[in-house]
Amino acid sequence: MTSLQSPYNDMLDNSTFVKYDYRSGGSSDNDKLRAALRGQDPLIYFEALRSGVYAAHYPVYVVADDPAAEVFTIAMEESLRFFGDPANMSIDQRRYAERTVKARLHQPAFRAKVMHAYEDSCAICSLRHLELLDAAHIIADHEVTGFASVTNGLALCKIHHAAYDRNLLGISPDYRIHIDNDLLDEVDGPMLRHGLQDMHGGSLNLPKRRAELPSTEALALRFEQFAA
Ligand SMILES: [Zn+2]
Fold it and tell me: What residues are neighbours of ligand 1 (ion), with CB under 5 Å?
């Protein structure tokens, strides 16, 4: 298995396939990619988000080698490799491919952007343990209004993500935290007391950059579900 890095000019030709330029200077990377094409070996593709920061996509597959253009074609989702070279795909196959890969391809980049905006910290409780943090969507990804922009995201720890998804915890458009009324009345251990009830009425820890603030429209739409 080879790790690809993309510090060069690997443009996403659409959301399904990546054109990957031959490495220059007689690099053995090109031979490895040809071998991966023959063997249909899974690879990891590191998409450069900004200097030194990558989103990992796995598994991806080399599906075509164009020596004239000195470029490989990488399928960004496993099922796409069975179509082979996208140049020979039918319109139906291409539509299927784009639909299949859309959500998955954007997920790693979405997480990386959200974690960066919130400085690897839960927006509710400030927990700073990446392995316990999720990039939560304000409006679910599968809904028409859901979108993979950082402004539709919140960095939440596992417990606050689950509570938000189940409307046990709400966030109003003025960035205030609300805990479900029934939950406020319950008596239980320290997780309920400190982890949830104590958060009621507090305000969200927000990204420093204005452009990364959670969308108040999205929060308002979502808060209606909590309030109902
Ligand atoms: Zn939290």
Answer: 122, 124-125, 127, 157, 160
64 CB-contact burial (10 Å; exposed 0-12 / middle 13-18 / buried 19+): middle
Structural domain spans, the chain: 3-89, 114-227
Is residue 199 within 8 A of residue 171, CB to CB? The reply is no
Write the DSSP string, 170-199.
EE-TTSBEEE-HHHHH----HIIIIIIGGG
Report the separation in Å between the CA atom of 205 and the middle of ligand 1, taken as the mean of its atom positions: 10
- The token pair at 161 is 């993500």
126 Cα to the center of ligand 1, angstroms: 6
* For residues 196-205, average pLDDT: 96
Sign of CA dihedral 197, 202, 208, 211: positive
pLDDT tens sequence across 85-101: 777 778 887 777 776 66
The DSSP secondary structure of 65-103, one letter per residue, reads EETTTTEEEEESSGGGGGG--GGG--HHHHHHHHHHHHH
- For the chain, first and last CA: distance in Å? 50
Enter the pTM of the model: 0.61
Q: Which of 89-93, 103-107, 125-129 holds the top average pLDDT?
A: 125-129
Using 50, 70 and 90 to split pLDDT, how confident is the model at 4? very low
Report the C-alpha gap between 174 and 61 in whole angstroms.
45
